[in-house]
Design goal:
Blueprint: H1 2-11, E1 24-26, E2 35-42, H2 47-58, E3 64-67, H3 74-85, E4 89-92, H4 101-118, E5 126-128, H5 136-144, E6 149-151, E7 175-177, H6 186-199, E8 202-207, H7 221-233, E9 238-241, H8 243-255, E10 257-263, E11 270-276, E12 288-293, E13 299-304, E14 307-308, E15 311-314, E16 318-323, E17 330-334, H9 345-348, E18 349-354, E19 357-362, E20 367-372, E21 377-382, E22 385-388, E23 393-399, E24 402-408
Parallel strand pairs: 2-3, 2-8, 2-9, 3-4, 5-6, 7-8
Antiparallel strand pairs: 1-12, 10-11, 11-17, 12-16, 13-14, 13-17, 15-16, 18-19, 19-22, 20-21, 20-23, 23-24
Bound molecules: zinc ion.
Zinc ion (ZN) binds next to loops.
Length: 409
């Protein structure tokens, strides 16, 4: 009976305000990181697919690219779909890049329709106002045509988690401009990162030209690389993601709730819980990171429906994993858990470098792939193996799909 009562109490608990007997909590950001950052690149300039996309891929990062649909042709459609396949977001930047808020409002829907028709694996769900021009009417048009957020050009006003106290604020996402009159040094770039880590919120960065003099607000490609490396060096604290993923997560987390359905009262070794939210599931499918209290006894397996949810971390207080709100009941099975089973390449392989040879020590059956920094496959092997490169530079190694960048001097 005590357990049943416990379950009933939990059903009434939600996102941020828990009753005392809570079963767990929803992390503010993916993987329980402190904050989120999305890099955005405007206008699909010629160096975006040739310089920016490979530089992100090399570092295992993704970003958002805002595309003007009059630029869509056979070649650019192929390029944006390749970028999307790597996890990058393609967002809406109108048809003709007009300068008036009225015309921007008019183009929001038809531009989205054109982009959605061109994109194979995603839909355009975030928007970017040309010249940062918008009014309340522009916001309404952007919202009503199926966009969950929009980025303007205003600088960050705060770095707090509650950066969108009302819905219109999701349609005026702040940004740090890079190049031109904006930040030009890695130190200035990093200042905002320190602030957002401390504030716990979300910021975007806005880029135009990269590596091609003459392009608007152009920066040297080495500046981009230095900024990406700086951002990546903080990836234990910062969720580096796209605008769409960050906003989906933020909107879901603030209305989602975790409840107990069957907490060990039928089978003491199985917990069944639910993660629900109030948003439409066709758009809001971003997995939330959840911590469920384990009362000192570990769980060995977590599933949502028939899908395994890899255990991201477990202490003697909680088990942490990702699940999709309204994605079906979640079952947790009691049992021995080994920290080495965490899905991290360093837990499944040891990678070392001697002169120009990369050595990988791993499980006999593990699939190992060596890539160039642009993602071209150099060698596919199985189990403990090595590969010798001919040139200095950075290379990517994946072991069972988990990747790591290796620098050869
Ligand atoms: Zn633009």
């Amino acid at each position: 009976m005590g357990r049943l009562l416990f379950a009933l109490i939990c059903i009434t608990t939600s996102g941020y305000l828990y009753a005392q007997d809570k079963i767990g909590e929803i992390c503010k950001w993916d993987f329980d990181k402190d904050c989120a950052v999305a890099l955005t690149f405007d206008d699909w300039l010629t160096t975006h697919p040739t310089i920016v996309v490979p530089a992100l891929q090399e570092r295992g990062m993704t970003a958002t690219f805002y595309v003007i649909t009059k630029d869509l042709n056979q070649n650019t459609i192929k390029q944006i779909n390749s970028a999307a396949e790597l996890g990058n977001e393609i967002g809406n930047h109108t048809i003709t890049h007009p300068s008036s808020d009225v015309n921007i409002a008019k183009e929001a829907r038809p531009a989205k329709e054109q982009l959605d028709a061109a994109l194979v694996s995603q839909q355009a769900i975030t928007f970017d106002y040309p010249y940062g021009a918008f009014s309340n009417e522009t916001i309404d048009s952007v919202r009503n045509s199926g966009h969950i957020a929009a980025r303007g050009v205003w600088p960050p006003s705060n770095y707090r988690y509650n950066f969108a106290p009302n819905d219109n604020e999701y349609y005026n996402l702040r940004t740090v401009s890079v190049g031109g009159d904006g930040v030009n040094t890695t130190i200035d770039f990093a200042k905002h990162l320190t602030k957002v880590v401390n504030g716990g919120g979300f910021i975007t960065y806005l880029y135009h030209g990269v590596g091609k003099s003459g392009d608007y607000a152009n920066i040297h490609k080495d500046s981009l690389y230095a900024q990406l490396d700086t951002l990546k060096s903080l990836s234990d604290k910062i969720w580096i993601t796209t605008v769409a993923e960050a906003i989906k997560y933020h909107r879901e987390a603030r209305c989602a709730s975790l409840s107990g359905i069957e907490i060990g009262n039928v089978n003491p070794d199985i917990y069944i819980i639910a993660l629900i939210d109030t948003l439409p599931d066709n758009v809001y499918n971003q997995p939330l990171t959840v911590k469920v209290y384990n009362q000192g006894e570990t769980f060995c397996e977590v599933k949502q429906g028939d899908e395994i949810c890899p255990i991201l971390y477990q202490t003697n207080e909680y088990v942490m994993f990702r699940a999709i709100p309204d994605g079906g009941n979640i079952s947790l099975k009691r049992g021995h858990w080994d920290i080495n089973s965490v899905q991290n390449i360093d837990n499944i392989a040891t990678i070392s470098v001697k002169h120009k040879t990369i050595f990988v020590t791993t499980d006999t059956h593990a699939s190992v792939v060596f890539y160039t920094h642009t993602g071209k496959i150099l060698s596919k092997q199985t189990g403990t193996c090595s590969f010798s490169v001919t040139k200095s530079g950075s290379y990517i190694v994946t072991v069972n799909g988990l990747s790591k960048t290796i620098v050869i001097n």
